[in-house]
């Protein structure tokens, strides 16, 4: 009985980690970048705490109404996700606005800062994604894997011991 309980607990721990990590890893194999929404500016469609899947797009593929992710400057990796309200092709800039904001963003977005177009979202995974990408989060995942393996090993030893009786 104890061996079955240990085995099942190990399986459930391993499955939980895998199921939580899959939506944050598999899309990258298909060319998507994953970003977390950190503010309320895109409520209600993209609430704080969700992650968005972003596919690389050329500026000419973007239309008003599309939601894009862009770098806040040429020398930074900090990004923002907002909706395109206008496109100034002459100046090669997007005018963007957060859905929950009253007015457009103060600074236009140069085409060169475009990361891509948002193609999907996963609510509430932003916090898990941030944790997973820290040293502590990675260590916790490794610890859960080791714990699950230890439970399986203990279950096998108990089963072997019981079969000898």
Automatic annotation (TrEMBL):
Coiled-coil portions: none
A Gene Ontology term for the protein's cellular component: membrane
Subcellular locations according to the entry: Membrane
Cited SUPFAM superfamilies: LexA/Signal peptidase
UniProt entry tagged with the keyword Transmembrane helix: yes
Example GO molecular function: signal peptidase activity
Name by which UniProt lists this protein: Signal peptidase I
Protein's organism: Candidatus Blautia merdavium
Organism lineage string: Bacteria, Bacillati, Bacillota, Clostridia, Lachnospirales
């Amino acid at each position: 009985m104890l061996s079955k309980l240990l085995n099942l607990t190990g399986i459930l721990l391993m499955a939980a980690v895998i199921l939580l990590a899959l939506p944050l890893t598999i899309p990258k194999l298909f060319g998507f970048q994953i970003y977390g929404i950190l503010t309320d500016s895109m409520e209600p469609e993209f609430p704080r705490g969700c992650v968005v899947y972003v596919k690389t797009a050329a500026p000419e593929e973007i239309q008003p109404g599309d939601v894009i992710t862009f770098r806040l400057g040429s020398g930074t990796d900090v990004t923002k996700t907002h909706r395109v309200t206008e496109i100034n092709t002459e100046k090669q800039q997007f005018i963007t606005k957060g859905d929950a904001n009253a007015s457009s963003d103060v600074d236009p977005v140069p085409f060169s800062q475009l990361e891509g177009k948002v193609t999907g979202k996963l609510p509430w995974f932003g916090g898990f994604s941030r944790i997973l990408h820290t040293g502590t989060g990675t260590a916790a995942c490794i610890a859960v894997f080791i714990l699950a393996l230890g439970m399986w090993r203990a279950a096998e030893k108990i089963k072997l011991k019981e079969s000898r009786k």
